[in-house]
Amino acid sequence: MPSLSLDCVIFGFHENQLKVLLLKMKNADQWALPGGFIYREEDIEEAAIRVLKERTGIDQIFLQQFHVFGHPQRVDRKFHIDVFRKGGFKIDKDNWILQRFLTVGYYALVDFAYVTPSPDPGSADCAWWDLHDIHELFLDHKNILDKALETLRLQLNHQPIGYNLLPAKFTMPELQKLYETILDKKLDRRNFQRRMTGYGIMKKLPETRKGGAHKAPYLYSFDLRKYRKALQEGLQGGW
Amino acid sequence: MPSLSLDCVIFGFHENQLKVLLLKMKNADQWALPGGFIYREEDIEEAAIRVLKERTGIDQIFLQQFHVFGHPQRVDRKFHIDVFRKGGFKIDKDNWILQRFLTVGYYALVDFAYVTPSPDPGSADCAWWDLHDIHELFLDHKNILDKALETLRLQLNHQPIGYNLLPAKFTMPELQKLYETILDKKLDRRNFQRRMTGYGIMKKLPETRKGGAHKAPYLYSFDLRKYRKALQEGLQGGW
Q1: What is the mean pLDDT of residues B187-205?
Q2: 3-class secondary structure per residue, chain B
Q3: What is the mean pLDDT of residues A6-12?
Q4: According to a count of CB atoms within 10 Å of the terminal CB, is the N or C end of chain A lower?
């Protein structure tokens, strides 16, 4: 489809950090969100699934469209021409890639352990970045990332965000850290535990996480059926 | 912009009913959402504001982009050709209007009293419909409306929805009816009143709504500063 692209903010959670999968561009010292175009006969959702599969190796991914970015000046023609020139390509001024592009933003939540980051043909590298280390990205991609994070925050009580980002077994401190990272604030340990337990969406397992210096914390897993039911009402009680 | 349109779900609230502004198409027995195209140099948000201003006469409107509808078969070529033929136009099979179109959905919340519905050149009529009377619309517009309503439901605790849909002064039963319509369920009168009062976002006025058969209910107005502050945290308490 002309003038239309999609970009994916792929979130993962590892070592108590919220991570984002980024691509290092060839012939430019910039990192970008993984993205792609939409084929003439392709559903936009399918296109997003295709891009995610190509970059992560996974095809069962929690995926949500969240916003279209449509500012007329969001594409930097000069930058593009420069990148192509450095790559040894001469590009015509009327080339479709230099047109105005609107991009549809998707966010994806993946289990970090199952992802094999794979660069696309236009990229030199594909890697996880700590959310807090990302200050500047290609074009308006930082803006897209910020909007994805804002959406995640708003949807924390309506989407199975914990379920999709955490491994099958996790500890209460890990879950709290995930919430704290998304909400960008410290939460009280006791309140958090009481609240999460009160939802009745998790099972306390008879195992503990071993290997730490402190007392080994218990492992939990989500009860997916109860989790989904609670989300439909909204996790804060709803109306 | 080629292959890209926008459609607006314009909500109003009148006589205890949630209403949607629709256009009756010329030369077809169908109603549609107001929509339009995006000029080459126009921001997508500006295009939505332009369409809303044209249809409602208002330009200070609460407006939110909510979803892109991108199914490859969402445009019905045969239907379009037929409508043009009935209107006395012959349309080429390669005409841009017959291409695949993706559409960006916006929802708008307006104060019913200030709107002057105005049909566009392709329409015979522009009118408010009761939400519950809308069963079928042009193309996938019913689907777009349903998605807008779902979004409204999810954002009830994060967007100033009551403020934008109700007149400056309203009664508690009117506010409750608005919530019930959006949530599509009956709410308990006492709980609702306690909850809304508890947020501290409304002022009880020293006036009552006169003219009804029952005891005249008190009028309220929103304290916009407190309302906005409460929304930032999320009206259900947040984290």
Answers
A1: 92
A2: CCCEEEEEEEEEEECCEEEEEEEEECCCCCEECCEEECCCCCCHHHHHHHHHHHHHCCCCCEEEEEEEECCCCCCCHHHHHHHHHHCCCCCCCCCHHHCCCEEEEEEEECCHHHCCCCCCCCEEEEEEEEHHHCCCCCCCHHHHHHHHHHHHHHHCCCCCHHHHHCCCCEEHHHHHHHHHHHHCCCCCHHHHHHHHHHCCCEEEEEEECCCCCCCCCEEEEECHHHHHHHHHHCCCCCC
A3: 96
A4: C
Band (B9; pLDDT cuts 50, 70, 90): very high
β-bridge partners, A171: A219
Residues A168-198 as b or e (16 or more Cβ within 10 Å = b): eebbbbbbbbbbbbbeeeeeeeeebeebbee
Nearest to A71 among B3, B43, B68 (CB): B43
Q: What is the pLDDT of residues A72-103, one digit of tens each?
A: 988 888 888 888 888 888 888 888 888 899 99
Sequence length of chain A is: 239
> How far, CA to CA in Å, does A42 sit from each of A22, A48, A185, B89, B107?
24, 10, 40, 31, 26
Partners of A237 on chain B (C-beta within 8 Å) are 236
Give the pLDDT confidence score for residue A236 in this predicted structure. 62
Is B1 near chain A, with CB under 8 Å?
yes
* DSSP conformation class of A99: S
Asked if the interface predicted TM-score (ipTM) of this complex is over 0.90, the answer is no
* pTM of this structure: 0.89
Reference A4, options B76, B47, B102; nearest CA is B102
Point out the residue among A4, A67, A237 whose CB comes nearest to the CB of B4: A4
Nearest to B71 among A43, A185, A236 (CB): A43
Instruction: Say if the Cβ atoms of A43 and B4 lie within 8 Å.
Output: no
In DSSP notation, A177-236 reads HHHHHHHTS---HHHHHHHHHHTT-EEEEEEE--SSSSPPPEEEEE-HHHHHHHHHH-TT
Contacts of A42 in chain B (CB under 8 A): 72
Asked if A42 lies within 8 A of B72 by C-beta distance, the reply is yes
Give the Å distances, CA to CA, from A39 to A1, B176, B200.
Answer: 6, 46, 51
Contacts across the A-B interface (CB distance below 8 Å): 75
B239·A185 Cβ contact <8 A: yes
pLDDT at A237 over 70: no
